[in-house]
Amino acid sequence: MSFKINAILAAILVGCALSLVNAQYQARHLFRDLERAQAQARQLDIDWAQLQLDQSTLGKHARIEEIARRDLNMTQLTANRTQYLTEGGQ
User: Fold this and answer.
1) What is the pLDDT of residues 42-78, one digit of tens each?
2) DSSP readout, 7-73?
3) Do 63 and 57 form a contact (C-beta atoms < 8 A)?
4) Spatial distance between the Cα atoms of 74 and 22, rounded to a whole number of angstroms
5) Rounded to an integer, what distance in angstroms lies between the CA atom of residue 90 and that of residue 88?
């Protein structure tokens, strides 16, 4: 009878040990996934800051005006080039 109890307790002990090993294995994988996600979040923060900087640089009025003049051959509107339309043909 004592042998059966020892065998059952040994089996339970082995089961608990295997469960502990499995839990540690899963914890390591979860920790690795967490570190990867944190690294990706840091990279996304860096990318976001760079995009905001690019947007502020690209959206400046002087740059837009310079591109309009250079690439689109646009000129600044002056009063003598302005035409006013009136209703009714008068």
Assistant:
1) 999 999 999 999 888 877 888 888 888 888 888 887 8
2) HHHHHHHHHHHHHHHHHHHHHHHHHHHHHHHHHHHHHHHHHHHHHHHHHHHHT-HHHHHHHHHHHH-
3) yes
4) 70
5) 6
Q: How far does CA 36 lie from the centroid of its chain?
A: 13
Q: Can you tell me which residue has the tokens 């043909």?
A: 89
Structure tokens, 61: 């009025």
Retrieve residue 54's tokens.
Answer: 């690019």
Would you state the pLDDT for residue 90? Answer: 54
For the CA atoms of the chain, what is the radius of gyration? 36
Please report which confidence band the pLDDT of residue 25 belongs to, taking 50, 70 and 90 as the band edges.
very high
Tell whether pTM > 0.70.
no
* Token code pair at residue 90: 């008068």
Paired tokens of 17: 């040990």
